[in-house]
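Q: What structure does this chain adopt?
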Amino acid sequence: VLQVQKKNYREEKKRATKELLSTITDPSVIVMADWLKIRGTLKSWTKLWCVLKPGVLLIYKTHKNGQWVGTVLLNACELIERPSKKDGFCFKLFHPLEQSIWAVKGPKGEAVGSITQPLPSSHLIFRAASESDGRCWMDALELALKCSSLLKRTMIREGKEDMSTTATGGEHSINFYSLLRAHNMQGFQFNDSDQFKDPDLYSDKSDREGEQDHEESDPEGLEKSEESDSDTSERQDDSYIDLDPNENVRETPYLEQSHEELGEAGEASQTETVSEENKSLIWTLLKQVRPGMDLSKVVLPTFILEPRSFLDKLSDYYYHADFLSEAAVEENAYNRMKKVVKWYISGFYKKPKGLKKPYNPIIGETFRCMWLHHKTNSKTFYIAEQVSHHPPVSAFYVSNRKDGFCLSGSILAKSKFYGNSLSAILDGEARLTFLNRGEDYVMNMPYAHCKGILYGTMTLELAGQITITCEKTGYSAQLEFRLKPFLGSSDSVNQVSGKIKLGKEVLATLEGHWDSEIFINDKKTGTMETFWNPTPELRQSRLTRCTVPPEEQGEFESERLWQHVTRAINNKDQTEATNEKFILEEAQRKSARERKAKCEEWAPALFEQDPVTGEWHYKYADTRPWDPLNDLIQFEKDGWIQTKVRHRTPMVTGPKRKHKQSDKPKSPESGCSSPEPDRQDSSGSERHKSKHNSRLRKKGADLSELQSAIESIKQTQEDINRSISVLRSRAAGQAEGGSFLQQRDYAIIIFLIFLQVLINFLFK
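A:
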């Protein structure tokens, strides 16, 4: 059997080589071909004819393919868009480790290419005539780069495939794609011109003789090596999601939301007249506080509570997540920023009737839901968890890989009392990522301001300065939510203004009301148009939200956890609501005391904190771009957002990003928490999750050490840069000083010469 396998191995080797060579030389197998300008090592541009084939990029001096310049191997290359001040569109093809990207020989065995300006060895910078042409080239190159890792070739086949070299170009393309998927074109080089004359010379006679000698001398060693290989493959498979495409997905069942409360536009839905009974409760509450005090530890009366958790409240921003789906495929960076701003504003007009505050989540509490995108046939998943109680930190993660975006962040909720008013401050930021572009949009949140507590009508408003920035594109947006002035009219309620900028240049301004109409004024064209207006038609087009049925929820999921409090509030039974709320809070305090006695700290189930940056990250985040050839469906099970795939693919998580010190959430205290939830999965997935968690903890320790080393290197680089700047300034000062001294010396020399001439004239 082993001899047959070796024979099949050698035949596969020959056939793969023939396919590769025939694909390169076959003129019908072309992905794309056009003129591109390429920058040489001398910083000058040369116009060359570029032919993209599966796995390789052939460069010629003329479009007749007669003067070969070079062949770029795409298997180890990375592709990135490159900013440019000139016309056209630039992109860069490079080796991440600065190794050579060139093949040794040409498609016809050429050892030396046509004479042109010298080109870099580890990268190439291209310039297309227009942005549309450049985008087409980048899409084609992305296809050629990604198609090498879709499938794995098996060396054992039931039938022998046709080895004819007279196949059509389409057949060559299909065979070559399978070759790319199998071998990733690793180590592909033209080392001998004879390869082009007779591909059968790839029989590798010396290797074959060595294998036979090894087989005869040590058959037991071969068996051991095979066992070792199988063990290695099993260990490697641990980093993959292995799902059979024919197997039914075991996912969490979701039901469409039956009821949703939408407040009216304007001030009417944001005011509330407090009854005499409730006023006495407020006065009792105010005796416990003083101006400037943080209200996070103060127990609030239940009549001002909105019957849902704060984790649920944070999901209001994704009823128009289809705006993000549109932004992800938008080619123009300015239009992408406008769509992101439009989505951001769309999250505020959904408000409860009256002045209501959601429940303060209990530590360990979780909430999950999803939205259906009918246009793209995709789903947006939302996962949130209360990761700390003192300080109260809520972490959340949103993912729609099929539409190309994800969002993560954490919010530290703080509240301040000012006498007749109080403010609920949401300290933290969210990071929106477009997976196919590698762009991050970082944004913060406005604060809620409630006035009229002691006298006047209780009114809730939004206020604060908001920034949305994309470091990669250079675009940013600034929004200001403004409070109603003391003598302002009803038209001055819920005002918002802002501007969209590229660097320091203002491209457009925004003005209007965040719960009604907002206008945008384009500074270049001078035109003003409606930017946002939540009309009844738009409200009807909101995405459908689906939630988990109560019987499928865990013990610490929001709806099930607060069900008795919610029922009492809906029945207007404030006494029962207060009692049920006290039971939950007391259970949390008891659990905190027990952990404190055991010197234990709370460990969140779905999120983990970066020890370096202090950021909270979703444990199962998958930030790979969606691969339509391999990815089938995205689903969620027990808080774990997963993807069903045709073939095993490695899980990739985004890099941990460094934030300012002031933005770091404080580490959770172990003094206040709730009972640890019992998350057992009867389907058997718990064992897989525990194994995955242990592996993640091990990787997290290694990553933290690596992150520490990187931070120290960055600090050293910053010190070096500062030293270089100081040296440059000193050198510039010395140069100016040297120039001055040199001029003075010239003046002295001229004066001495003149004096000498004068003396000679006088004594002559």
